[in-house]
Amino acid sequence: MPTNFTVVPVKDNTRKADESNEEEDVDDNNVLKEEDEGTTGDGVPKENSPFINNTDNDKGNSYDGTNMALFEEEMDSNPMVSSLLNKLANYTNLTQGAQEHEEADDDEGPKKKTIKSPQMGTFMGVYLPCLQNILGVILFLRLTWIVGTAGILESLAIVGLCCSCTMLTAISMSAIATNGVVPAGGSYYMISRSLGPEFGGAVGLCFYLGTTFAGSMYILGTIEILLTYIVPKAAIFVAERKEDEVDALLNNMRVYGTCCLALMAVVVFVGVKYVNKLALVFLACVILSILAIYAGVIKTIFEPPDFPVCMLGNRTLQNHNFDKCRKTDIIDNLTVTTQLWKLFCDGTGLNATCNKYFDDNNVTMVQGIPGLTSGVISENMWSKYGPLGMLVENKLTSNGRHDPSQDIYLPYVVNDITTFFTLLVGIYFPSVTGIMAGSNRSGDLRDAQKSIPIGTILAIATTSFIYVTCVVLFGACIEGVLLRDKFGDSVKGNLVIGTLSWPSPWVIVIGSFFSCCGAGLQSLTGAPRLLQAIARDGIVPFLQVFGHGKANGEPTWALLLTAGICEIGILIASLDAVAPILSMFFLMCYLFVNLACAVQTLLRTPNWRPRFKYYHWALSFLGMSLCLALMFISSWYYAIIAMAIAGCIYKYIEYRGAEKEWGDGIRGLSLNAARYALIRLEEAPPHTKNWRPQLLVLLNLDSDQGVKHPRLLSFTTQLKAGKGLTIVGNVIEGTYLTKEAEAKKAEQNIKSSMSAERTKGFCHVVVSSNLRDGFSHLIQSAGLGGMKHNSVLMAWPGTWKQSNDPQSWRNFIETIRETTAAHQALLVAKNVDSFPTNQDRLGEGTIDVWWVVHDGGMLMLLPFLLRQHKVWRKCKMRIFTVAQMDDNSIQMKKDLQMFLYHLRLDAEVEVVEMHDNDISAFTYEKTLMMEQRSQMLKQMQLSRTEREREIQSITDESRSSIRRKNQGGAENTNLSRQSSTAEDTQEDEAQLIHDRNTASHATINDKADTGPERVHMTWTKDKLFTERNRNRECNTNVAVRDLFNMKPEWESLNQSNVRRMHTAIKLNEVVVNKSQGAHLVLLNMPGPPRNRGGDENYMEFLEVLLEGLNRALLVRGGGREVITIYS
């Protein structure tokens, strides 16, 4: 839909006086200048700017006007529309290789000439180059043989398949080429920018190999024309026997082909301008040759040319060593034998012994070119495939019964290769390649987006018409035996298609010779530049050296590699063997052009707006399917090899290549697939069988934004093994406006650490006003849709006691509460810096699981996942559980073993029985120290005056409590003892506590060694209440009262804290006793107190629980089952 613009001039009153004297500083050369960081290395602008020409040159220009003062601060990054339109209007796209020439001339400075804008139109810029590249060696050297072997109908099928493939590819290519500017690089640029660097590099290299082998094919065609039709006597290797002819021909092709390649490479190295100047000459040769063919066909209607074919019976004879197609001749009334007689008989006499088939059959002559109206078309309608060495015969019947295999070394025309339909498809397909010639020259076109589609499609339509008409006309004008005579042996070594042409066969011979020479030179010119473009893109590291060249940008090293690969094709030496190879590479290139168009069309990306409208995704898929089918039809093993080469290059670029963001369609396809999968995932929560830990890893950074605990990432890698979701998060305190640079640096450092530790996942850095809110935001909002984390992994705050800021451990506890509220599992790693790296290999050892309360199976699942990684693979799994007095330990052990059997887990089961013991003095003393420390922490938050007043009140209250206890417990105690120094009293009490503690530990160890082992699989609700009541009853024990009498401060302790400390100490003693040598210990993590006033005590409980363990992992379930016995 056309859009109308109205330009309204706006006057600037402040500059009226100066406008007449000032001139705008417009540098025409700036249009073509590009900063180094603005290019990708091959002269192609990076896609980080929204337009082709970057605006970096304007950044230094200040804006002085007042009309747009509201936007003056944005002028550096957002130029005015008038400036932008001026740049776009003067945009010039340099041709391939011209950018390097311009860079070589930069030193001239002001002397540098302004580059002329391209002026080539559709006809000269696209149509004729495509015509020249499509019509070539196969048309002149093999099309007649294909028609004679496959017949007219199957030949039309071959032509129709191949031309349909290229036409559909041209439609897709036109859509891509008109979707924006296509710089130098042609098909490689289109595929790489549409499908990404991996596909682009793989297909670009395949296209390079195809172009290189095409050079080999053209050189072999040139040498075949030279040695077979122009100067046969120039052959170095001459066969004395017919069976050696094939080897001699191949050796001659190798020698002359290598010399021709060296000569062409020197020409290309010296200067491409000579090749370009000769392009019109080569094109004229092609056009004249085509016209000569049509003129010859028309002439056959009135006067067919005289090219007789000598037949012996129904067999075709090679007409090299005889001049008369007769057995005998009459000279002076005497019957004498001819030269033909000598070829089949052992003497020249009439009584000589001759070949039996020669004796039984007569020699006849048939017209090789009977003419368009002769009706020979009906005989050439059907195929005549055959094996290697099959004699070329016509429809005539022969006398006698003879074995043809005995006569293949006689001067008959025979098949030099085994022929079948699929072979002919592979040989013919190179004759329809060359459709990319127009897109490769997009920089020379006046209007590339108009010229490329029209010129390419017209060229394909023209060449398709030429091929179809040639197939029909060849079949209608030429005798079948001559069509199947590949090298024209039956017509004295003339080029078969030349016998049809007018005015002379030499028109076709000379025209095809120069056409093949020109095509070979263009292949050697284009292939190195394509390789140079790929190398300069930097996506294939080992090709970097080929991005360099001469001072003017000529790709010297790429030319050497191209010549080397081309030599491989020449050493193959057979045109029929090389043609299917390059067919594979071109077909793969065309396949991905169609795929690129189909993907972009189906995704409907906003940037997909081709000016060429006559395309459809179904046509692209049809073209892609046809390309794939032709690959396997031509040669299934070559197809597999070509796909394997492309696959290896793809994986190499994916693994080692530089990361490029080109806005390619594969990325869009991935986004669409991800969106679809996320919508499907959100429909329902995952089943227990599909549950795996999707981790949110909370990292701490140091002051330089470096990762404090990289081993946490190592552990993540070992736990996940690249499966599932991993989000590595961090919180920076402050506001985003002031901390943006720090956030980006932190994100970059985290990504570097993730790469070093091989952690596959995503990084998420949040800037928040405080750490607590930041971690809360991460826990709530990290992930997307169904791809959200279900587990949080963090490191134990090892320095929480030494920290002056209580906010550190409060944030830790709040994180625990957040994860519990969000129904997410929590993993806390203690001493995480001692965890193994990914390069470590732990030897024989154990992973110990202490299953105290049921957590949904997390404790069972985590060791299994860890043991899948090579670091933990040799470790064995042990499961400990705690049994109480009223549990049946034997039965529970059997139940647990059966449960593990159904879970398909290999683990040793051990039982630990914890008896109801009296609370030791050590426990009370530990609790007292904990509560005193809590009081001190609270005091540190008060003001100095309030702190002193509070300390005095606590001291007075403690003294009065001690005084009351002493008066009530023993009235007649001597008061002089109470007046002893406080230091002596404290030393005695400390010694008493130490003795009792030692005795208590010894008792527990004895009981642990001698008592029966029991297994407790889960805590039920009733059992929990029973345990609490039992603990309360124990508090009223007489022995406890004795302890209170010993140290009265203990009676004022919170009994709930005493019980919890008792549990932590006892459980820690058991765990340390059993698992101190384990590689990793997994424990149930107790929940934080509901009353926030006891948070600091909770940290002390966990510290006591983990004391003495080297590597420990506290695990808190998310409130759902994560493991099941069902399949």
UniProtKB/TrEMBL annotation:
Domain SLC12A transporter C-terminal, first and last residues per copy: 710-828, 839-967, 1007-1127
Comp. bias regions, Acidic residues: 20-39
Superkingdom assignment: Eukaryota
Pfam families: AA_permease (PF00324), SLC12 (PF03522)
Location within or outside the cell: Cell membrane
Gene Ontology MF annotations: potassium:chloride symporter activity
Record membrane topology: Multi-pass membrane protein
Domain Amino acid permease/ SLC12A span(s) in chain numbering: 126-302, 414-696
Chain spans, region Disordered: 1-65, 939-989, 994-1013
PANTHER family, A to Z: SOLUTE CARRIER FAMILY 12 MEMBER 7, SOLUTE CARRIER FAMILY 12, CATION COTRANSPORTERS
Full protein name: Solute carrier family 12 member 7
